[in-house]
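Hi there. Long-time user, first ticket. I'm pasting a complex I've been working with (about 453 residues overall). I'd like to know whether the download I got is complete or cut off, because the file seemed smaller than I expected. Thanks.
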Amino acid sequence: MSNDIAKNILRGVVFLFIQVLVLKQVEVNFGWLTEMSLLFYPLFIILLPTRFPTIAVMIIAFFTGLFVDVFYDSIGVHASACVFLAFIRPLAFNIFSPREGYSVNLYPTIYNLGFLWFLRYCSFLLFGFCFFYFAMEAFTLGYVFQILKKTVVSFFFSMLLMLVFMLVFRPKE
Amino acid sequence: MASFFGDFSRFSSILVFLFLEMICFILIVQFNQKQSDIFFYSGSYFSGKVLESYNQLTNHLSLSEVADSIANENAALLEEMINDRNLPLLVFKDTLTIEIDTSATDQYVMHSAQVINNSINKNRNFFTLNKGAKDGIQPHQGVLTSKGIVGVVRKVSENYSVVMSLLNRQTRISAKVLRNGYFGTLSWRTDNPTIMELSNIPKHADLIQGDSIVTSGFSTIFPKGIMIGKLKDFKIEPGSNFYTSKVELAEDLSNLNYVFVVEHLKNEEITELENSMENE
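Hi, the file is complete. Here it is re-exported in full:
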């Protein structure tokens, strides 16, 4: 258990620094791609063990998001999207539940549950996250088209980044 | 028991979710210029909407007052128009006498009124107006709308007056064909509330279906040239020297709301003069 927590904290810190030090700087000046934000750190919340209680995950997600917000200078926007992501995580577990169910101490990774399962699970959560994030950023539903455009572009490239990470490092936990 | 705890934890996680999102919301509005602008703008937009609907509601309540004032204004305009319409005749007279007769200019005064009771299905139909002697309404004044004439005042009380509708067996209105000036008498045959009968037009007059029928101005009840209706069809009874024609009324008498009462300022003088003639 304490091993788990230590591992997750380490992963969280690494992911967060990758996000705020590297990915925040990425800007592409090409057509639609200017709308893109690479959002990699949500993978940290996505990969938390299945048995973590939802409330705990939401609180962790809140502080994670707040940390990113400090660097993005957008206090509350990332945090709200992270909390939303943590909230719909159990829903994703239910929807994409494998036939034999989940074993007790499980990390939702490609190694444990297969590529296809992870693709569905991760894309569901990431799309929810991106939509919520850009909706909160725009803060009005008057620009639904803008929000969707940003969501789709950012979702696609962030998802690509996450899959590359998962396939290259193949984390078991 | 397990399902109870399951429900409980789901419920509490929703509560925690809402709680955290609320904190995020407050943080966003507190620390981000753009979002806080939108938030406060939306707030004022919402309060603005509420105030606007409230205003609309109160406007609705005062709508009848507005309608009354517009009716009065219309009466004033119509008065001006009708008095103007008599001007060409006046000019003709003036060119003969080279003397401007100012007494003849403002002979008509209009009073606006609202119909508060109406009938069209009897042999003798009357309707009631919400204005009476107090407002200057007297018996034998004409009642009209912007489309055409509708009746003649019969009885007046302090605040109300009863008008004999055109749709009354006793109605006799002097009317003329606008195009050629032949005049006849308008009456109602008690059958159709949109049709009246125009008789006593001599058979040498040429009539066309659709001719406008207007008031002749031979009585002090109606000014001359006020619309009555359109000629619908006409025939000559065997052995008669006069047309019997049907006139389709311009105004729908089953649906009256605001009307104007015409007051002729020289009414008394004319009636007196005519009566003195009869007594001789």
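A couple of notes from our side: The helical segments of chain A are 2-22, 42-46, 54-72, 77-95, 110-113, 115-138, 144-169. Chain A has a mean pLDDT of 88.
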